[in-house]
Design a protein that fits this description.
With 115 residues, this protein is mainly α. It has a domain of 77 residues. It has a two-stranded antiparallel sheet.
Length: 115
């Protein structure tokens, strides 16, 4: 003997008191439809949550890029200042060398005392 089908009946009763309209669906089809609806809802909620998370991460990345840009500008300024200071130190060393030659003073004396 075959399996007996169980049915799910939907009855539509119009307000105009006309005859009712009935739809008979196999219970398994209704169960599959409900399961698909639940799966779709969970999938949609998962997508929305993932999208919200990615949007938040994108905002944070944008803020970090801006902070990095500002910091890079500061680093470039410090690098330029350091270059200027190095050039000034080299000029001072050259002037000191010229003065030491004119005065007969050695700038690079040995650390050991003369004997």
């Amino acid at each position: 003997m075959g399996k007996k089908w169980r049915w799910f009946t939907i009855m539509i009763v119009p307000h105009s008191e006309e005859s009712t309209f009935s739809i008979r669906l196999p219970l398994a089809a209704v169960q599959v439809a409900v399961a698909l609806f639940i799966i779709a809802t969970v999938g949609l909620l998962n997508f929305a949550n993932t999208y919200r998370l990615r949007l938040s991460e994108a905002r944070e990345a944008r803020l970090l890029r801006e902070a990095n840009r500002v910091q890079q500008e500061e680093i470039d300024e410090y690098e330029a200042q350091t270059t200027v200071l190095k050039e000034q130190v080299e000029e001072i060393e050259q002037v000191a060398e010229i003065l030491s030659e004119k005065l007969g003073i050695s700038l690079h004396e040995d650390e050991s005392p003369p004997e």
